[in-house]
């Protein structure tokens, strides 16, 4: 009974996420590319890459792995190459989304806390290089999943069916690979983002107190302080959702290592329910972080309204011409 309820809830969640998430990310991408949102070029590169990564999460993790594969197992589980491709993409798109958030958080950290280094680091070329590096390394790092799937049997020289390579349970290299992957996602990114946010808050608060000391009334606010406060909101728009939505995943990671418990028998086990809920939360973050972040900016909301009116007018004119 519990298992059926969890599976039904998962189906509803992933279908709703796919239906709402793809249009939201496409509109975010188009708005960032076509409208002037008052955002620097290097920041736009990060946001566009993050929105693209969110779309890939929706397409491959949600659409393919959580919706198509369960409904059409005869196709995806019949061909080993399909199984391998699904497994690589399912893990790589999530890793890429996470590390793009880390890269963007570091970029904002440098922009706020290191004004001298900002001129060299917070540039268009650096942003493009960082984004390309993240995409390349995260997808390359997950390629070993290709070898975790072997054919169920071979008939007439053709590989048929999928099963897990038994070597991954005993070989030291595979154990090291899984440990490294678990540390790199989610533990290391979570610690890094939390640390950068703490250091950024500390820097802004200290700088604000120093600037306030120069005002005789102690209450007036200059433009520099307001810019720093806006920059803080700018940063937390992306990282705060990551910290909150990945908190349960990090908790499970620590719990599993402390208790040495990594699996469950069925969904009557509370550990299974918490694990499934944490998966939903982290996929929600990986597929909607850019939308949440962009909507926290007033200039983006204004341009989004204008872009919406433009699309509405365009659709109305197209409809009128067909009549």
**Number of helical runs?**
11
How many individual β-strands?
4
Low-confidence stretches: none
Over the alpha carbons, how many angstroms does the gyration radius reach? 23 Å
Structural class: mainly alpha
Mean pLDDT, to the nearest integer, reads 84
What's the helical proportion of residues? over 70%
Order of helices and strands: HHHHHHEEEEHHHHH
Strand content: under 5%
Through-space gap between termini: 52 Å
The neighbouring-strand order within the major sheet is 1-4
> Quick one: overall form?
globular
Biggest sheet record: 2 strands, antiparallel
Description:
The protein has helices at about 1-35, 40-70, 75, 80-115, 115-120, 125-140, 170-210, 225-245, 245-260, 270-295, 300-320, and strands at about 150, 155, 160, 165. With about 325 residues, the protein is mainly alpha-helical. Strands 1-4 form a two-stranded antiparallel sheet. Strand 2 (about 155) and strand 3 form a beta hairpin. Helix 4 (about 80-115) packs antiparallel against helix 6, helix 7 (about 170-210) crosses helix 9 (about 245-260) and helix 8 packs antiparallel against helix 10. The longest helix has about 40 residues, at about 170-210. It is globular and about 75 Å long. The model has no long low-confidence stretch (mean pLDDT about 85).
